[in-house]
Amino acid sequence: MAGDGEEGRNKQVLARDYIDGNPKKRDMYFNISSISLKVPEGSKEVLVKNLYLSCDPYMRGIKAKIPNRLFLFLCSPFKPIVGYGVAKVLESGHPDFKKGDFVWRVTKWEEYSLITMTESLFKIQHTDVPLSYYTGLLGMPGMTAYAGFYELCSPKKGEYVFVSSAFGEVGQLVGQLAKLMGCYVVGSAGSKEKVDILKGKFGFDEAFNCKEEHDLDAALKRCFPEGIDIDFDNVGGKMLDAVLLNMRFHGRIAVAGMISQYNLDQPEGIRNLLSLVYKRIRIEGFTVYDYYHLFPNFLDLVLPYIREGKIAYVEDTAEGLENGPSALVGIFSVQNVGKQVVVVARE
Amino acid sequence: MAGDGEEGRNKQVLARDYIDGNPKKRDMYFNISSISLKVPEGSKEVLVKNLYLSCDPYMRGIKAKIPNRLFLFLCSPFKPIVGYGVAKVLESGHPDFKKGDFVWRVTKWEEYSLITMTESLFKIQHTDVPLSYYTGLLGMPGMTAYAGFYELCSPKKGEYVFVSSAFGEVGQLVGQLAKLMGCYVVGSAGSKEKVDILKGKFGFDEAFNCKEEHDLDAALKRCFPEGIDIDFDNVGGKMLDAVLLNMRFHGRIAVAGMISQYNLDQPEGIRNLLSLVYKRIRIEGFTVYDYYHLFPNFLDLVLPYIREGKIAYVEDTAEGLENGPSALVGIFSVQNVGKQVVVVARE
Predict the structure, then answer these.
(1) Where is the signal peptide (chains A, B) (predicted)?
(2) Which end of chain B has less neighbouring CB within 10 Å, N or C?
(3) The complex's ipTM?
(4) Chain B residue whose CA is closest to A235
């Protein structure tokens, strides 16, 4: 970095090692480093001040060794935690960004970041909604819901939609988008409180507590006497196996994740794939990275709903980078109510 | 049926009962009935003389009780076997068909049939190829190969294609179509002889005997060091599980059947579905019934290949309806060499 620039004090959250399983507080530590507050001469990098950092379920070490995983890594030893966030541009060597712009996407858990991979930055064009929303409802989780539901599931008005892990940041939005287009929507969640919120605040037609249903097939048959057209699957495992028994002809299943399987040494066997043939069902796994080109379409759909108050959204904020590690750890034992955001600075 | 028409003697193959599992000779018996050789006054039915009957792997009783199965039923007690076939129109009440037309699709195992479901009849427009081909290469198995490969798998030149059960009537054609469009093609089959024929006569790049490979994952890695783009799956079970470990990013799997699972009391568990998410894979089950509107497109593609001798195709004919039951039974222990056809009459 240029030695002739102004130097700034930069508080950081670093990883102690690669993380195996859900992160714990002892996996992270604080550091004060210094950062040049100038973009290197001639580079196209962008210097930002981080405002809001996102705590997301994907930020866990995944035990299963999958070659060529494309997920973002939570951490490398002695490096800052990497994650989604909203930031303000302080200086830019890139023609697409200028001082004062707000941006979102991949950044680091520190006060200031020099962003080299500027192709992974989005300029925030709409600032009449809270900037922090670009970590959740208007960010990666929102795009995941949008891409999986609209692009993979081709929903039609009146169809029967099931959302597993519906209380999660993605599931909440899938359910609400499905309701807004006139579908019948049922969600599963892991507690009575969440079930009540799904049916109350988020407007799901029905919801059930998957931890209290000893027979998932029976629970689905009770909620879907006509069967399921669309399954937005976050869970995999036994829930997916039960869903397969309840799909309708030409049903579509979008698989955004399989949280029931990540921490198992050996994944559970899915026994009901014969339904694929008998009922002509499509299952498709996806990651949001393939769909960011649709971000403008997503905003066109969702921003009006937000402005009209048609989408419910709750944030849980932790104030200050020093509260970041406990906020991140908390989402894996669901300490948070709503989207967990770490506020580094408000502007 | 009208009592005033001319009556004909009609030899039939009837089912003794519902069939559980692979059909056996004792499940069928012969009968001589009489049939009016006139179409009932004012009806839109079509009276045909059956020429070629098709013996297909789907013609088994399937133990698994799947609600709303849409498969054709092999049999009802004391009724003629139902199946695909080629026939000649003797008389027609339907404006789309006239005396002397050749037709194919669903008919019965008897000399003469009065076809009421005329919407399931195709008129044969091209008679410069053997009529019997419309039971196989140009009929349901051919359409299954075409729809699954082109419509579901969106193949591109140079892609890596795996066909399980490649020696079957569908698999043979999928492999040849894939080769004709410039893909790399590997098939699995159940004997050394079949493997040799796949690589020799049918031009597969590679093939292996799945009964001699104790590690299917290793066999696939040997044949596909770069991974698999397209899997045309006829087998399911362990083979599908091994395929999932070897798929490339954005791979596509068309599931035409799961023959490894039909006769099991409890289907095997598939453990590697996490690959769907990590590699953004699509799996889709299908049945040919949804794709018959593409029959003209299929003929446009395949007829020139047949006329130019670019597709290898072998038929095994059983002469006479009286040899039908043993021919049908034979395909389940693979007594046939090539497509098994029963010749009722040659014109």
Answers:
(1) none
(2) C
(3) 0.85
(4) B274
